[in-house]
Amino acid sequence: MRYFRVLHNFDAQDGVELTVKKGETVFTAENEVREGWIKVEVLHDPRRRGFVPFNYLRETTESLAREQEEGSRGIGKELGGMSVASMTRQPSAIPRETSVTFTSGALDYGDRLQNMYGVGASAPSPVSQRSRSAEQGMKGVNENSTTTAIKRVVTGTLPPSQKGPSSPPNAADPAPERSLLSNPSAIVEAFMKNELHFKQLIRQRQDALAQMRTTVEEAMSELVACKEKNVTLARKLRELDQSVEKERGRWKERIMEEKAYISRSMSSE
């Protein structure tokens, strides 16, 4: 169990979050840190339990002291009933998460007890094995914490005073949105892609408008030409009608002359 002191005030915005004040002492309800959030419980107040941003907390020396005390008690109980036949028994009293200083001390203490009870030097002490495994596990945790801190610095994560807390882990939240919001370069890239697509649409619209304008101008020019042809055809039709009327008048005059000539011929005979 790890103890932390609250560095900044935090107001809960969801049912799974926990409102804490600066200076309060909390301990872990779950040791796993998920996406920058950790589930804690306020000391001496078991009703106050929920998720708090991990960067709002700082681990106190009280947790290390309690771990050392619990580890010492567990080792004392186990070594009180230890025998040569029970050397191969799996460890159960040593906590899984111990500090490097405590594991080193437990290692030396276990070796001294091994020599005291006369255990063969060829078989390593179970306490030493457990201490070494705990020390390796603690080193792995420290390396993971260092890697996480470096990733936060590279991605430009702001401190709590400049950045509001992110939302707690929720199974309903889609993973792509969280990755997009936590990656400013992806937001900039998506914005640039949208802007490029918008410019392409504007260009296509301008090209379509220009093509429509050209088509309308061609249609207007053809309409003007048709009007001119219509005027020309109307003039020619009028001229043709006038010519036909003149020719009809001539034919009437000639017919009348022929009739008069025939009448005179018949009367003379």
Q: Can you describe this structure in just a few lines?
A:
The chain is an alpha+beta fold. It has helices at 61-80, 100-117, 126-154, 175-181, 184-268, and strands spanning 3-6, 25-28, 37-42, 49-53, 57-59.
Walk me through the structure.
Among the domains are: 58 residues, SH3 type barrels, CATH 2.30.30; 85 residues. Helices cover 59% and strands 8% of the residues. Strands 4-3-2-1-5 form a five-stranded antiparallel sheet. By secondary structure, the protein is of the alpha+beta class. Strand 2 and strand 3 form a beta hairpin. Helix 2 packs antiparallel against helix 3.
Features:
SH3_domain; 5 strands; 269 residues; SH3 type barrels; SH3 domain protein, putative; 5 helices; five-stranded antiparallel beta sheet; rod-shaped; SH3-like_dom_sf; alpha+beta
